[in-house]
Amino acid sequence: MCIRDRYQRRVHGILRMEKKSGPTLKPSAESPTNRVSFLSTHLSAIQDYIPTHEFEFDLIVIGADQAGIALAMESALLGAKVALVDCNKRNYPGNTLSPEGTWARAGSFPMRFMHESSLFAVDIPNQKEAGWNFPAKMAHNWAGMQKRIANFIAVEHSKVISDLTAAKVTYLVSSASFDTDHTILLEDNVWQKKKMSSFYIAITVGTAQNFEEYTEGAECLTTSDAMLSKPMPPGKTLIIGSTPLAIEWAGILISFGYATSMLVRNSLLRGLDPDMAKRINDQLETMGVKMIKKALLKELHSTEKGKIEVKFQEIKSATFTADEFDTVLLASNEVGLTTALNLKNAGVRLGGSGKIKINDRDQTNVPNIFALGDVASGRVESIPAGKKAGVMLARRLFDNSDALMSYANIPQVIFSPIQYSFCGMSEEEAAKKYQKENVEIYHTSFKPLEWEFLEAKNDDVCYCKMILTKSDEVIKGFHYFGPNAGEIVQGFSVAFNRGITKKQWDSTVGIHPTCAEIFISLKYTRSAAPNAKKTGC
Q1: pLDDT value for 8
Q2: Which of these is catalytic: 115, 140, 301, 512?
Q3: pLDDT interval class at 536 (50, 70, 90)
Q4: Does the reported pTM lie above 0.85?
Q5: Known catalytic residue at 512
Q6: Is residue 280 helix, strand or coil?
Q7: Do the beta carbons of residue 129 and residue 456 sit within 8 Å?
Q8: Inter-CA distances, 38 with 3, 9, 44, Å
């Protein structure tokens, strides 16, 4: 069935539904009175555009990130003819990750594996107090870990390809660029150049580190992707950036025993809750991470001894300092991978940082072209959000749905050595929207029960807080800094997104003894007890 037939079936399906429940949309004074004509004009995902001729595909997805895979799979399962072009060849200095593995890049499975491995390095010495005896010398096998990660990526990639094949998605590994708004140009070593046409086109190429400001010495920089396939240990490492990715790498490397520094131009985790960012900063510094703050990287080059010499300039004093490193990891804010797409040929407009402007329907200024995932301007950078948005777009295009993705209150986690997860507003955001005097903060620091018999663990390092409006006690945000943060906040986010009040929250019976239990027994306000600390059971 061609896309025009599916489109007409969509229109007539709505007409049949309306015989039972009444009109779903009412024509305006300017709209045509013929109901079929009205629906054809207003209910299409591309609004005024009605297909008039055939294309090779119903949908081409450019880029194989998680949003693109979800969109391609769901569209194919709904009967669309779909092609997925994996064009994410991240040709940056030191990058050895194959194109086929780009869907599982840093920030998902491999980073989580490294995080879990690093936790052993931190906790094993403390287990002596729990009665365990370990060898005096224990070493981490970097190469062994990397081999296991590479094997996992290969297996998972084969599963994804198998699922795409079973859904009858045409999967291609090739470069891709726009020829027209309905045609893309593929180019690789097999067919050289080939054109493909489609009624709909979606861009899901993701983002990558921006090397443009490092015109000299860029060959000395490595990326998170490259670190995931680095065969040799990184040694003494400088991390450029203050993003969640930078924080996760800092925690991993310092835990494995590598001297680690972070170059932070402004503040850590700018845009997130400053109170929680400070707790993460303090934790990393306590573990031995050297923070080079309020400074700029001015020069880097390789030395004859195989090191990388880096010169810094302090922003305030303008003084210079220098140091040598084995690895320099660029983990600053990323830019959209759109340069090679020739978007101007299709007329697609860009926003800032190489990302694509879209509306609330994930639609660009060109009606039949969409953008999803991290490459979409103004969206929360979240793999689960991208996947859900991909499924919802597929259903709007091919299954009569008109439901839109909500990007409000998406739970997020940072896998720092002590994890940080949150959902909803920060203190600053709540104060700005509701006025500071109308906002209440419930909070407490605590020591997890599983740490109680470990004297090496601090009593008050973990922390949770809840932000609510005083007038109705509706919870506007909650933040947790402690073990298993992602698991805990994921569960609470379901209730939070239903507009729950503090009274309703407290009516829940806790599971004892757990860290999550602390969240439903918060009784101290910051105004009454600035240094609240949980004691006893």
Answers
A1: 52
A2: 512
A3: low
A4: yes
A5: yes
A6: helix
A7: yes
A8: 19, 15, 10
